[in-house]
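Field: COMPLEX_INPUT
Field: COMPONENT_COUNT = two
Field: RESIDUE_TOTAL = 224
Field: MODE = joint
Values follow.
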Amino acid sequence: DAKTTQPNSMESNEEEPVHLPCNHSTISGTDYIHWYRQLPSQGPEYVIHGLTSNVNNRMASLAIAEDRKSSTLILHRATLRDAAVYYCILRRLGANNLFFGTGTRLTVIP
Amino acid sequence: AAGVIQSPRHLIKEKRETATLKCYPIPRHDTVYWYQQGPGQDPQFLISFYEKMQSDKGSIPDRFSAQQFSDYHSELNMSSLELGDSALYFCASSTWTGANSPLHFGNGTRLTVT
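Field: COMPLEX_OUTPUT
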């Protein structure tokens, strides 16, 4: 499986936008880019996913580079509830698995 | 909306005992996944099932087995428990649409082996 690289940790002030980067230089054409997050003492939670085009949903936006070797998860207005570990995961089309790497621990400062 | 239900929430066992964890997927979800998360670790994929058949296998020890039943619920059976098996065990479910279907996770079962 293609690997992703994320910063170990990031900080953001409350109510400011947050841009969480992810590098995936060995991505293949059939790999979807998924983002999950895990709040303390909870199971992972799906955030967003995409293949080539930028995606928006009620939780976040996903910006995918034109060459697909990197992507950025955008939280438009961080709240204290967004403090979590964010995982960027490549998931191959047809794969019945999801492998978590080492994500980014986001701290939101009041 | 209905979520993934796992039982029990907490389980305490002694070394060499057996444990069974249960997972009830979201209605109409036909794929179930099991994960193990040790203290301070990231979730590790163990195994998945689609339509009651094993569909993928990760780092599941030979002492563990799992199955998916006709009502789509799944059970993870763990035998000869070791101290290192103490962890959070998560179950997730999805519909079978390949990589385009998000996983929905339960809140986990915390297993403590003493």
